[in-house]
Amino acid sequence: MLNWSIKGNASARNAAAGGTTAVAPPPLEPQKPKKTKIALALGGGAARGWAHIGVLRALDEAEIEVSMIAGTSIGALVGGCYLAGKLDELEAFARSLTMRRIASLLDLTIGGGGLLGGMRLTKRMQEHLQGLMIEDLPKPFVAVAAELKSGHEVWIESGHLITALRASYALPGIFEPVNCNNRTLIDGALVNPVPVSVCRAYEQPLVVAANLHYDLFGRSAVVKHRAGELKDVSDAPPKDRHRLGLTGVMVQAFNIIQDRISRARLAGDPPDLALHPRLNDIGLSEFHRAGEAIERGYEETKARINDLKRLQETFTR
């Protein structure tokens, strides 16, 4: 009370002397703590990987900011296009795919390291990503690949974006390996299907993973079986003939490998939150079902937004 009186008398004297009245500065508003950004680990899964587009759409809609992206296989493709500002173009391309159009993009090669050369798809990427370097992206980005000769896990964190994406989804036997700086690179899902460990290595406090194989139940079971008499498949009834063809067998075998490896790696280094879109009915080669996959990725992420925001509050510093 005494201090207030003195200040008042001083103000009155200043006014009487023709001076200006001192005005107290407005009180400072308390600053809201900054929300922790999330690091995204986008897993491999071939055609199921279009679900990553829906995941990113839902995060943007909820204004949840991404600090970095580590991607394997199609996860690298979607994540790289997102950081390059080309997600709209990628989604339009994915939704436009039909069985006939997919066939037109495949360039069959004879005697190479894969059934498909991949150059037609690469040309499509060049239309939007030509000359873009990973260092040019606004956030850190890592594409995971595997070195064919040594089996090493390779983290591509700089250099040409198209080369990194192409190496990360070079599915063995399907797409030809990518030769990059004296290394022969193939699909990163062989070594790290859901690259949570990459985000951890970059010291990210909050890591969210999109695992596209979670609902493939039964893959980890052990079954005791009795061997019957060996018969020619052609002798079996039509309903029992499960002839997938060379490509189908290779892709399905690769799917089993991814699932087994991701279970082991995520058990040892789990994310802070995992997104599990329901995609078990979408085949690995059914790229024409992009609309369904995108919607399911969106729905799963929307359902977990409150959990994400709660995690952000927990990690706020």
TrEMBL record:
Domain PNPLA: 40-200
Residues passing through the membrane, by range: none
Signal peptide start-end: none
Record InterPro entries: Acyl_Trfase/lysoPLipase (IPR016035), NTE (IPR050301), PNPLA_dom (IPR002641)
GO annotation, biological process: lipid catabolic process
Entry-linked Pfam families: Patatin
Motif (GXSXG): 71-75
Keywords (A to Z) from UniProt: Hydrolase, Lipid degradation, Lipid metabolism
Residue window of motif DGA/G: 187-189
Catalytic residues in the record: S73 (nucleophile), D187 (proton acceptor)
PANTHER family (UniProt xref): NEUROPATHY TARGET ESTERASE/SWISS CHEESE D.MELANOGASTER, NTE FAMILY PROTEIN RSSA
Protein known as: Patatin-like phospholipase family protein
